[in-house]
Amino acid sequence: MGRPPCCDKVGVKKGPWTPEEDIMLVSYVQEHGPGNWRSVPTNTGLRRCSKSCRLRWTNYLRPGIKRGSFTEDEEKMIIQLQALLGNKWAAIASYLPERTDNDIKNHWNTHLKKKLKKLKEPPNGHSMVGFSSPHTISRGQWEKRLQTDINKAKQALHEALSLEKPSPNVPQLKPSNGYYSFTELKPYNGPAYASSIENIARLLKGWVKNSTKQAQENSSTTLNDSVSSEGTQIGPKQCGVDLSEAFESLFGFESSNSDFSQSMSPEGSERKPDVGNQNPLSMLEDWLLDEGGVVQGKEDLANFSFDEDVELF
DNA sequence: AATACCTCCAACCGCAGTTTG
DNA sequence: ACAAACTGCGGTTGGAGGTAT
């Protein structure tokens, strides 16, 4: 027979999360780390299904989430990646580690899709020159772009792997307890989810509900400030062009959905113990060294930029 | 001031692949 | 081997807040 249900279907609460529930969830994750969601409702007393707990954590309470409006560079990156990957929001989110796939998806659906539609169909009826998407560029161009992206990723990986000395831009993978705090890009030490605490602080502000507009502005500002003050906020130059830095996100934090991060996070390694036998980095290194694409990648890199989309903004 | 309409986003739903008893 | 739960993902929805009329 199968396994027992993770939580009772009867009496499971739905709808918006209350601050009390958030605190319960964060407290639990502080103690046990993310993962093993099926045990969360039982152990916390939350009347939520495990799925809802996981979603709440990954989309809202998880450390390092940046909220607020998207920067132009983030938007450019999303547009590029969407053109490259399609609606693979989780994959796109892995390039924008401070944004959740849900956020990116929402932003795409509410802003970028309209923006692109508008630009594709200008009043004069001519399609925009210079806009590139799989639908508007030739197949040859498209394939070249795809190859360029792969090469860039390989190049970035090669650079990261060949660094003996820790680069200030490359996070170190030495967790003391198995968890990483992306926000700080250093090993996550102990149960102090710094950014979660700030998320909770923000929640509590809302909870205390002097819910004036002023309070909301302050709280969101506080969060954004706190993120940037930790030094890892993806700034315009960081996230826009340099995929090598974007690649850091694949290795230096516990992304919500990245395949890489899943295999490297405690959660992922729990579920895929085989990875532990072969260093995932060495696997990637093998792949990297398998093709001599790095040099070519550098050439292409020089020819590749988001500049051609600059007209979008 | 009242109402309608619009925007945004948190959360839900359903599916597919994976894991587990 | 199989069935059922778990997990992750993408699509969609509903309600709160904002804006226009």
Give me the secondary-structure topology.
Blueprint lengths: L18 H14 L7 H5 L5 H12 L10 H14 L3 H7 L5 H20 L18 H24 L16 E3 L4 E3 L5 H15 L4 H17 L6 H5 L2 H10 L6 H6 L1 H6 L2 H4 L2 H11 L2 H11 L10
Antiparallel strand pairs: 1-2
Helix pairs in contact: 1-8, 4-5, 5-6, 7-11, 7-15, 7-16, 8-9
The chain binds a DNA duplex (21 and 21 nucleotides) through helix 3 and helix 6.
Number of helices: 16
Please state the structural category: mainly alpha
Strands, count: 2
Globally, the shape reads: elongated
Radius of gyration using CA atoms only? 21 Å
Q: Describe the strand arrangement of the main beta sheet, using strand numbers.
A: 1-2
- Secondary-structure element pattern, one letter each: HHHHHHHEEHHHHHHHHH
Query: Can you tell me the residue ranges where pLDDT is under 50 for at least 5 consecutive residues?
Result: 1-8, 125-139, 163-194, 209-313
**Mean pLDDT level:** 57
Largest sheet: 2 strands, antiparallel
* Spatial separation of the terminal alpha carbons: 57 Å
Subunit arrangement of the protein: single chain
Helix content: 55-70%
Biased composition (Polar residues): 215-232, 257-266
Domain HTH myb-type: 9-65, 66-116
Protein name: Myb-related protein
Main location: nucleus
List keywords for this structure.
mainly alpha, Arc Repressor Mutant, subunit A, 58% helix, DNA-binding
